[in-house]
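User: Show me sequence and structure for the first protein, then do the same for the second.

Assistant: Starting with the first protein.
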Amino acid sequence: MPTASLSDDLPPQNLHPLREYQAPELPEPYYDRYEPDIPIAIDFGSLSVRIGLTNSEQPSNVFPNLVSKHRERKTGYNLTLVGNDLFRESVHYPTLRSGAKSPFDGLLITNWDYVESILDYSLEHLSVTSENGCLNNPIIMSEPPAATFGYRKGMYEMMFEAYQAPKVVFGIDSLFSFYANSKKKDGVVVSIGNNLTHVIPVVKGKGILLNSKRIDWGCEQELQFLQKALALKYPYFPTRLNQSHTSNIIQDHAYVSPNYAEELATYLDLDNLEKKDVVIQVPVEAAAEKAKKTEEELTRQAERRKEQGKRLQEQAQKKRLETIAQKEKEFAYYSELQEAILGLSKTEAERRVIAEEFENVEDLHKYVDGLQKAIRKFYNGDEEEKEEEVDPAAAWPLADVSDSELNEEDIKEKRKQKLLKSNYDARMRIKEEKRRAEEEKIQYDKDQQEWRARDLEDWCTAKRFELAQNISLYRKRSKIMEAMKDRKSLAAQQRMKNIAELANEKATGNGAGKKRRRNAGPTATIDNDPTDTFGTNDADWNAYRDIDKASLEDEQERTNSEILRLEEELLEHDPNFHHEDTFAVQETFDWKNLVLHKFIHGPRQSLTVAMQTEGHDADELLNNPEVIRRNHQLHVNVERIRVPEIYFQPHIAGVDQAGITELIQNILERNSDKNFEVGGQLRAFIENIFLTGGGSLLPNFEERIRLDLRSLLPSGAPLHVYKAKDPQIDPWRGMQKWSFTDEAEQSYVTKQEYEEYGPEYIKEHGLGNVCLKDF
């Protein structure tokens, strides 16, 4: 393994295997204490089924609410498996697991044949016997709050018509759980179910359903959200995650954050991430690691890298030769231009030079002098030739003599001397400019030193602001230059528009330009049109800057030089400005500074990136067992708190509803007597806030609700938040406990009442739904 793949002095990260659902090793037990006339309690949830006779304190059978059907090809025998049996038999019939289905589709039952198969399976394992062909036990069955008429109608038909049960009663699972756990009759029930979350106030042992609240979010939506989040995080992950995988990830690693915003702000800090990042390893078969390379192979690899470096050097040298060749061509061309403008008037010379995209004649001389120095430096090295002192009158005596006093040969010599003299003058001006620049720099350094001595903090603030402005300008210009590469971008289209407009006005003579030239007379041309005033205003030449990429590059270089100068000053004098704060470091790829890298790969460097940096071949990366193993890893970090946080902030998942704490607050403030005194309803509510349902098993759930409510209540309020002893089994225990009460006996709907009044008939009780037929 390459050394770059290992983090400095850090132990290997703990790997957690990706768990599948594991069915119990023993088959589903058969109940041996069956008695007729004893009520059968059925907690028929969308995720799992819990069933048992109420003469036992525990449900005799608990299994997933799944059915799978298989047809044996050889014998033609149809096999229907329910619950854990289909997972055990999937070893022999692999299609059973993939073909497993629930009778529920979201909140509704859509396959009543599956319901019948599940009930047949359940009653068989309860060892139900009958001499009259009927089910002789009363049925207590759970249902969701505000259960639809279709749900109750289907269950009535199943119990009374298919099984001939003597009587049936329905109740809400979360209220049964409250009945099993709470010693008080008043309170607030928070039920985190598989599809929905409910908050139900309970007064005198009766659920007030008209004041209950609901969030369209539960465990199933939680699993789907995590599955989509991981698919977005790892779009090319080689293994597809199913709901069983994501369910185990949430159960094993997710938790509710007591302070979500504060923890999220520091979650991806390296030290914090090292503790909280969870690495989940998906099973993968990787080829055995190849034997270590021999010295000969290592030598060949080093030679290949050396050859690659040599090729790069040759390419760089070739590029430099091409550049200097281009500069020599430009020097020859612009030297001829210098000679050509010597015979022109000052105005004509300026126009000719501006047409070549120079600001003035002096700018041309300066550019030619720069080319000459660059060429001389390339051939002579970094040594600069000293400018010899020259007496212009002695060196170029003909330069200032009138042409009328010279013959033809002297005029030609005069032109050469004028060119040499103009180049000399340009060099002298550059030298003078350098001298003035040095003097200005000395004065600038002196002013800056006085400023720092007077107020260092103000100086640092001003320099940081100036640096930020230059960096912003640099990035903005970089975006424009990058956009120009795309011909469909707005910047590229605007550039082409400017080019077209300039070409149209100066070449084709359309519009006002054509009109001006007609008025100028028959001898007017595009070069001598007296009515063409383009260029007299300095702003006219900005159009060339809009179409010239080279000018943008020059400005970018100047801005970069200014950034470097400011950073150098700040590094020297600002105690709070460090190398890590420089623009170059910020723009350099450093995985420790990249939030996306830490989010995807955790607190360690990506092995693939490390090996690529070391120069390993693509084939070596593709076949490296360690790379393959790491490519089958999931880093779960922010998701550990983000997914559970949706219960408190549903907008994270795009659900336009209030969170659990807000719903409880709404019930306390609007649906109570607001009396904090002993005996008051509000006091009774806050003294008994009860959590139930599988979603409440997440760590810190009750602590989060307690902290949120504590911030809303007066100091010293007797707040008590607690969780069911077993949130998944307690609904059944509540049904078993309730079955022995007089209220239960009076709440059954008999088969005769069903046949007389129809499936819409129900009897209200404190733990069930209410009749809404009058509304």
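Switching to the second protein now.
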Amino acid sequence: MIQYFDLIISTLEFKLPGLICFLFRYKKMSKLFGNLLFFIINASLIYAKFVKRDTLERNSVLGCAFQLSKIQNWDHKDSSTDQFYCSVCNYIPALQSWVFCISDTVNRLSENKDNAAFNKSIVDLKRTCSSINPIINNMTISEYYDMLNNASQYIRRNYPSNNADGLINYPIYMNSTMVDPIINAYHSFFNNMDLSNFSVYYYYIFFSFIFFTASMINYLNHSNNLRYFSKWKSWCKIKGLLLRCLYSGYHTEYIKFLGDGFIGLLPTRLETTIIINYAILNGIMLAVGYKIDPTNSLFKSYPQQILRLVADRAGILAFGNLPIIFLFGTRNNLLMGLTGFNFTTFISLHKWVGRVMIINSLIHSACYLCYSIFSGSFVFSDLELYYKCGIVAMILLLLLFFLSLGYIRKHYYEVFLYTHIVLGVGFMAACWKHVENLGWKNWLIISTVMWVAERLARMFNIISNGVFLSSKLSLIGTNDKTDDNLIRVSIHKKHMRPLKPGQYFFVYFMHPLIFWQSHPFTVIDVIQENKIIIVLKPKSGASKVLYDSLRKNHNTIDIKVALEGPYGHSAPIYHADNILLIAAGTGIPGPLFHAMDLTSKLQGHANKRIKLVIIIRDKIILNAFKDEILTLRNKDVAVEVFLTRERSTKSVSSHHTEHTSLLQRNLDIEDIKTFTKVSFGRPDMKNIILSCVEPNKNLAILSCGAPQFEDSLRNITSNIIMGHSESHIDYYEEFQRW
């Protein structure tokens, strides 16, 4: 089966048009397409420009129609529609009365210079009747003026009030005492809607400020100008506090809520600060600025008026969040490079903004449900399509939320991923039908275009990397237990430029059972051999499939892979005087690649101190990176290895140190003993970091390791930063989890 699948992949690779390969040979095309998202955001703000609904013209049209539609004794019977504005849209005397009422109102309440206000009101009149009487849309403005002139000649101020007194078959006059309260009521109603629409932009202003500030700090950091801020003790305090985990050393490690069934990832204090301020902003926009109509002319009671206004506000705010949620969940996010925030931070923001949107949606749904019940209009079988689609959208959104909980993500990631996509598409479709005739489709269009563009960017990214690349998989380790082995993947590059340390790819293994899956891996770029190295630990899912294939094929197989990326950015650690690289477990690739790159770039800089600390259970991981570690021989980097599972032996010859004897006897890397120090047990990370801290010198710490280790190291580093304001200390974490 695998051989047949490889034949299909080889055929597809051979048949791929040469023109496409040529176009995407260079990264410029892929980079241009990836950055398209940035221009989409700018275009989105233009497309989603604020359109005012609270206008005298609109209020006059609806106010006059509201009063005229309440008249029951028009000499007109039409059972084709039961919509509220049926009579004024279909019956000519009622339509003439409407046009006259509009003209009278705009002349009384505005300048109406050159009849501009009246002409604008006709546009709203057409919009109001578009679904009831399409013929009205085809009438010219001169026909409306003819209708106005005819109404002026035959209009009556006195008319029967009910069927018993007679039918009305002529235009009638609506005095100001009847119309103005309704117009003021619509003014209050649409004023609240305008404020809700405008409030959405505060989300974008808020995040623009956050990302602009982060981008400036990131720029200063890369240009080595941020070190001057270390003179301020308050700066060190703020930096140290924001670096810490939110609660008791939990950030990359899952924390339990209410038992084992509820687990989740907590944001850092920096992320928490952003999220809390965003939630406060949302709460303020949801709670203040309502304009209440004192006459309550449009609703049966004040509670119904409040319910309707809150429902509208919450629904509009929920819709305005959609582009932000989609943007933060994308891999091709230009903001990552600008701000220096990693994908984990944006996914954390994606989740919490989504949760606030769900709260807004629940408020919207609950208020509308109560409003419908109190007004006596809630009978599910009689509900209009937009209402039913709103109910479906809310159900899909709640399903999406519960299937995105930490327990599902951790134990059933593929279930989470594909249900997230399917439910997301269903939710957007239901929302479209929900507001199809109401407005606010612009937020759905923006989000959809952004999502499609990002997916296309991924596809072109894969093509630009050469589509199907040759790779060799080798099993490292001899233990029959899966967890005690590693898989080393050596991928032959085609058209890729040199990679930067810290970058990662989403890798697709062209195996018939897992070819549609992609998983992120930090890589090492071996430029001299034109290959990329990935080491993964077989667990369950895709890695277990690869492990089983290796065991069946004498621990080595050749397989095609597709690479999507590179993503991520390289930390600006090269400016520092002292550089401490910390790798724990399978988190070796990032720090090791940094060490290889730094020793090449900073060769001859005697004032630079580079230290690589590797913390592993046993020698198997060293064997997986044997060739790469050996490149550090005779370079200006101090390498220290801590073996937490191995134990020293007392049978050491007198002319060897303990760590040299251990390496001679146990490791497969014979030459590593000349430049590497090996220690046993767990290291004291606080002392290791403090040994690299020097007054008035810059220290950059970069780490990648297991979740619990990273959370502990983050808090240790935070305390050291706050306690050593005389030194500029930066901390970078390459481990990512979402």
